[in-house]
Design goal:
The complex is a heterodimer of chains A (210) and B (101).
Chain A (H helix, E strand, L loop, with lengths): L2 H34 L1 H22 L6 H30 L10 H18 L1 H6 L7 H15 L1 H4 L7 H16 L5 H23 L2
Chain B lengths: L1 H12 L6 H13 L3 E2 H8 L3 H13 L3 E8 L2 E8 L1 H17 L1
Antiparallel strand pairs in B: 1-3, 2-3
Helix pairs in contact in B: 1-5
Chain lengths: 210, 101
Amino acid sequence: MSSDVHELLRVSNVTVRRVLSRELRKAMGLYYLLWGTYPIAIAALYTISYEFSVIESALSLRVFSLPMMFIIMMAIAMIYAFLSRRFFSMAYRVSRSPIIVNRRGRYRLRWVITSIIMVTTIAVYPILVGLGNAYIEYIPAVVYATLVAFTNATFFKSGFIRARYYDYLANASFIILFPLSLIYYFGYYILSLIWIYAGARSLLEVISGG
Amino acid sequence: MVDEVDELIRMLKDEALSSGVRLGILIALYYIDGYVTFTDLHRDLDIPKSSLHQHLSMLQENGLVEFKRGITPLGVRTVVKITNKGKGIVSRYLELVRALR
C-alpha cells in the first residue's frame, strides 16, 4: 500500500481513538451515576411503603406486600439494566474492534487484582460465621459482584480508555461491599456514594479532556 | 489477500473516505451507534469548526451520516448520526481490515 494510504489510516485511527476515548469514558461515567442511584431508589421505595402502610391498613389494602415489593424492585432493576444496555453494547462493539490499542498487559493485571479481591472477600466468610453472621447468600453474592466487575472491564478491553483509581475503587468496593450489604445495609449507601463519586470523576475527566 | 487490498484501496479512494478525519469520524460513529454533538466532535478532534463542517457535509452529501439540529438532554444541539449506508460501508471496511491482519 502506498504511503498516502498509510497516512490516511494513521489519521483515521487517531481520530477514532480521540472520539471513542471520550465517548467511552462518558458512557462509563453515566453508568456509574445510574447504578449509584439504585440503592437510593430502593430506599425511596421502602420509605414510600412505610409511609403508606398506615393508609394501607386503614383501607385494608395490601399494595406493598412482600411479593409486590420484590416485583417492584426487580422492575426497577430491569429499567436500570435496560438503560445500561446502550453503554455496554458500545463497549462490547469497541472491544471487538480490529483497531485496538495496547490490549495486552493491563487487562491481565485487572484479572489478577479482581481475583485477589474475590479470594480475599471469600476468606472473610469464616470471620462472618464466627461473628454469628453466617448466611447462605454470601458466596453467590461475591461471585455475582465479581462477574459485574469483569463485565465492567469490557469498557477497558479496547485500550481506548485507561482504568483510573476511581474505576478500581468502584469495582473493588462493589466486590467487597455488595455481599456484606446483605447483612449490613449501610454498605449499600457507601457503595452508592462511591459509584456516584466515580461517575462524577469520569464526567469531569470528559469535560477537562483528561 | 490481493483482492482485499485492492478493495480496501478502492474504498479509500472514494471521495467521502479519502480523508483520514472523515474515515475516523465514520468509524467512531459506527461504534457509538447513536448521535454525537458537533461541539463534542469539535472538542475531540481539535480542528477548525469550518473544516469539521466541511468533512461532515461531505459525509452527508454521500448519504453516510445525518447532520442536523436535534434535541439532546442539554438542549437543542447540532448532532451527527451514522446512516444505514454508512454502517454498511464501515462494516465492510472493518471486515477487510480484519482479514488483512
